[in-house]
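User: Predict the structure for this protein chain, please.
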Amino acid sequence: MIGVLVNTATVIIGSLIGLLLKKGIPEKFTDAVMIGIGLCTVYIGVSGALQGENTLILIISIVIGSIIGTGIDLDQKISNLGQWVGNRFRKTEGNSHSVAEGFVTGCLFFCIGAMTVVGSLNAGLTGDNEMLFTKSLLDFIASAMLSVSLGIGVLFSAAFVFAFQGSIVLLAGFLQPILTDAAIAEITCAGSLMILALGLNIIGITKIKVANYLPAIVVAPILNWMLSLF
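Assistant: Here is the predicted structure, written as structure tokens:
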């Protein structure tokens, strides 16, 4: 778990640095950074979504995931996580981005992709944390940049990083047959579609409750595994 702990720590430290820097940056620059982050997020979402190999799995995953997420109102539950930290961390007039948006953006940025899954599997199966250490450096930079524009929600995503990657490490022996290259591609595709939606939200074009679609990244590899049995 050393790689997971280091990755979680870098997200926390990077987010704290970003929050400290945010206080000294004039609002007009913060707004400009938000748009820039939004555009980059759209690009990352589009490029990742093209990695999918089975459109049917993507469609079914998004449909089932949205039903589950909306049914339990996942977006609202994530938003409520920020209430205990006080009014100064809530959405303000000068910050149109909620705790939920920062949290979900961080979760998807730090946990979607082959580096996360393969690195966690390597750590769990062989004790090789090299890929997770490399990812930690990248996430340190990304968390600092994201928290400048999206606030404390990005810091909260460190808990999801720990839970998501830690689960893969601890269950690596069981998950290895399911998390094939094809399954990782479908996870990346579904997650990247949500990253695209987040980018559109950040720019201000849409107001999609992206958190309600998060279950799709769990449904996708299960569907891929089920199809491989036939």
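The mean pLDDT is 84.
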